[in-house]
Specification:
Order of helices and strands: EEEHEEHEHHHEHEHEEHHEE
Number of strands: 12
Strand content: 15-25%
Number of domains: 1
Radius of gyration: 21 Å
Oligomer: single chain
CATH architecture: 3-Layer(aba) Sandwich
Strand order of the largest sheet: 6-7-8-3-9-10-12-11
Helix content: 25-40%
Length: about 325
Amino acid sequence: MLEVEGLRKHFVTRKGFPKPRTVTVRAVEDVSFRIHEGEAFGLVGESGCGKSTAARALLRLIEPDAGRVTWRGEDVIAARGEHLKTLRRRMQIVFQDPYSSLDPRQSVGSALVEPMRVHGIAEGKEARRRAAALLEEVGLPPAALDRFPHEFSGGQRQRIGIARALTVEPELIVADEPVSALDVSVQAQVLLLLKELRQRRGLAFLFVSHDLSVIRWFCDRVAVMYLGRIVEEGPSSRVLADPMHPYARMLRDASPVPDPSRRAALPRILGEIPSAANPPPGCPFHPRCAQAMPACATTLPRWTSAPGEGQGGVACHLHG
């Protein structure tokens, strides 16, 4: 369904006072993955590793600097005008912050009807009827059409954001940390809703999150990102149960287990994530890795397939 190859996005900015200097932030570097029909694919990693930037770049909400994004054989990066508009209808996004992703001056009905009108799906009473049905599908009353975002809680606003994404009948939903800004009890409700929509509509998902428990529950496959690069990828059951990369293993070990009988001190991940404006040479994780070898400091590890068919792979000198 979707294939991403060698995606790259750098941001150029100026920092410093009184003599500012030009700095290049390497947010996404050579990211590649595939999403199949009806599949939930997760992107996981620490804050600032480039997950959200990669997701937005493949949708061209921000323009990538290099790489190839293919939707059912069609080049998304090269698309222009009506062709791009058609492709964007197939791929929609649910943003992280439900408080800033909705226009406070636009009613819920207007927010849902506008995409239908823009894409020529429906107008007038028919569009409003469809919008009311979508609100009911995400667990809100049709009367919400005439209300404004400030009248709803965070969980309700996120349901409106999900309904807005569904207005153009997409095949892929990019969920960019869709529950991280919500209370824990509300998170569960929204996740259950997304899973029901996936099953009912046959949707595929690119699910961006830093929460391994959410990824484990929702996603079929997962890619672990570190400093703009994917360091491991494979089925969620394999990557989160028996990770091959030291960073993926440390993430797994630092995730609390909801079992009082297994309570233990959580291990610390050593050091701080380096700046994307000045990444270390070689393997980007080697300054924090307890298993680093001399080659890790000088040579970028090549991608190695994991044992077994369909088990993904890892970029690590330990498995090279």
